[in-house]
Every structure is written in structure tokens, then in C-alpha cells.
Amino acid sequence: MRVIGVESSCDETAVALICSERGLLSHRIHSQIELHQEWGGVVPELASRDHIRRVLPMLAEVLGEAGLQQADIDGVAYTAGPGLIGALLVGACIGRSLAFAWGVPAVGIHHLEGHLLAPLLEAEGPAFPFLALLVSGGHTMLVQVHGLGEYQILGESLDDAAGEAFDKTAKMMGLGYPGGPALARLAASGRAGRFRLPRPMLDRPGFDFSFSGLKTAAVLALREAGDDPAARAGLAADFEAAIVDTLITKTLRALDHCGLDTLVVAGGVGANRRLREMLKAAAAARGARVYYPRPEFCTDNAAMIALAGLKRLERGERAGQAIHARARWPLDELRPPPH
């Protein structure tokens, strides 16, 4: 079965083609970073317009690279939520229209389910069940994954997500957009230990996160650092360390709670080098193995949407003729496919 995937939930336009026998055949990702840099963040209307311009040309590139034609496609998957509603509707309208025109089934995919399944794109992917740390600009959560569509949320952020805290703190430090990667680069040149930043909610039971207080502490520390380059780099290092320590401690607690030895880390912050290195070492000390998607599939992409779509279409799930998209869509509302 060959399935086209379309992702347009925020500021990446992406198209991919996956095959049930040969795996990922082709994919394209276009980032709108340059488009939104002038504004210091994503402008929803600009994002939607750019998706409209790019999806169909990227589709032609993907089909051409795979050496296939429209008649070779057996299904279409598109991101139906959560995300920016205008951006989602672009992908949903195009995806559903392509399926109608080609006479093939379509399925709307939950964006976070795509992230949870992204490590399965790798040659050695994890097997169900596993624990997932989903950490991105919009979400930070620990999810026990029993199988396709069987997700139990153990804990999530009560305010800012980790990636959002990275981006907002970077913006306050004048590091530009996107802020998270810029702050991580600055942290790599700094010496941690100068600023005492909190590790939020580690003294409380459970698996929820909170990063707004950490962000406030960083604002106060930034006043102390002033314009001193070494102090600012040290602050970036201490801020990164506080988030990574919090994520690792909560994740290890959840592994013990679930009695699992398989951990998946997904989402844009999952590409953070410090998080990867420290979490791998901490999990190995407990006899657990950590799986990541390759860095290009940590951020939003269509390969993960095509994969989730393939798995659901293979088990008989079909979208109706109506076009649906949801800006808010709780992950635990998902259900397994019908068969």
C-alpha cells in the first residue's frame, strides 16, 4: 500500500510518500522560518498562505523522486489537528480533495500520534508497549503507548511546554527566532553553575510539568547577567540544564511506574543534544533503551503522518467526505482503528 502524507499544522509544509513494503520512498519539508523571522514568531495567516503555495509543487517532487504517478497511490493521510486551524484546513482540504479526485481512501491524523510513531520510521524501531516523552514547542507530556490509538497520558505541562519555555526565554535574551535552537547553541559555549534555577515540581508526586516559574527565574537572572557575554552564555547553560534535569527525572519516574524498559523521545526538543546524551545514559543505568527519530523527523514532518495514515488505512479506517480539522484535539480522545 502506498500512502501520501501531508503535514501543515503550523509553520512547516511537508509531503511524504510511504510504502507498506519498501518503507519511506520520498519526503519533502519546507520550513517557514525566514517568513516569520521578521515578526519574531509564527503569523497564522502568513503560514496558511505559504502552505497553499507549496503543497502541490512538493507533491509533484515527491512523486517524481519515487518514480510513481497518481494512479500508483492507494491512500492519503493529512494532519487534522491539533494546530493552527487555518494551516490545518489547507492540508485537510488538499488531502481530502486529492483522495476524492484519485478515488482512494483518506484519513485525518492526530499530529501527536505522528510524533509518537515517528521512531518506527527507523530501521530499528521500538515495539509496543513503550513509554513516550513527547516534548515540543506546544506540548510536553509523558504517554504510555499500549498500541496504535491506545494512549494513556501520565503527565503533561500545566502551563508552558518545554519548547515554549526555550523559545520565550531565548526571545527575552534577544537570540532571535526560532529561539530554542539558538539558546541551545549559546548554552554549548557557556559554563553552568553560576545561576541557581529551579527544577519545577520535582518535589511533588506525579508526572506533570510546569515551566512558567523557571521562565520567571530566568528573567530575574538575565537582569543579573546584564550584557556580559560569559554570564549570558552561563545563564543559557543553566536554563537548559534545569529543563533537561526536570524532563529526565520525571521520565525515569514514569519508567519505574510503568515497569517498562523501552522509551521513545519525540518532538522538536527531542533533538536537543544535552537531553539525548543524558537521557540515554540515565536510561541505560536502569536497563532501558531509548529510541529517537532522526533529527529531521523530530520536528514537524509528513513522513510521520504518512506512517500513521498507512497503519490506520491498513486496518480499515476511512474518513468521510466532509473535511474536518481541529485546533484543539486531546490525544486521549483517539481510539484504535476498527479492525
List the helices and strands and how they pair.
Blueprint: E1 2-7, E2 12-19, E3 23-31, H1 33-37, H2 44-66, E4 75-81, H3 85-102, E5 106-110, H4 111-117, E6 130-135, E7 140-147, E8 150-156, H5 162-172, H6 179-188, H7 212-225, H8 229-258, E9 262-266, H9 273-285, E10 289-291, H10 302-314
Parallel strand pairs: 1-4, 4-5, 6-9, 9-10
Antiparallel strand pairs: 1-2, 2-3, 6-7, 7-8
Main features:
339 residues; alpha/beta; Nucleotidyltransferase, domain 5; 2 domains; five-stranded mixed β-sheet; 10 helices; 19% strand; globular
Q: In a nutshell, what does this entry contain?
A:
It is built from ten helices and ten strands.
Task: Please explain how this structure is put together.
- The strands form two sheets. This protein has a five-stranded mixed beta sheet, with helices on both faces.
- Helix 4 crosses helix 10 and helix 5 packs parallel to helix 7.
- The protein has ten helices and ten strands.
- It starts with a strand and ends in a 25-residue tail after the last helix.
- It is 42% helix and 19% strand.
- Strand 1 and strand 2 form a beta hairpin.
- It is globular and about 60 Å long.
- The chain has 339 residues and is of the alpha/beta class.
- It has two domains: 153 residues, 2-Layer Sandwich (Nucleotidyltransferase, domain 5); 165 residues, 2-Layer Sandwich (Nucleotidyltransferase, domain 5), CATH 3.30.420.40.
Order of helices and strands: EEEHHEHEHEEEHHHHEHEH
Count of folded domains: 2
What is the topology, as strand order, of the major beta sheet? Answer: 3-2-1-4-5
- Please count the helical segments: 10
Main sheet properties: 5 strands, mixed
Percentage beta strand: 15-25%
Query: How many angstroms does the end-to-end distance come to?
Result: 17 Å
Give the low-pLDDT segments: none
Estimate the helix proportion, in percent: 40-55%
Shape: globular
